[in-house]
Amino acid sequence: MKFGVVGGSGVAVNLLVFNLLLHGFGSPPMTATVLASCVAMGTNYLGFRFFAYRDRASRTKRQIALFFVFSGIGVAMESVLFYAAYHGADMSGPIGSNIAKALSIVLASAFRFLVYRTWVFQHDARRH
Question: How far apart are CA 35 and CA 19, in angstroms?
Answer without folding.
Answer: 11
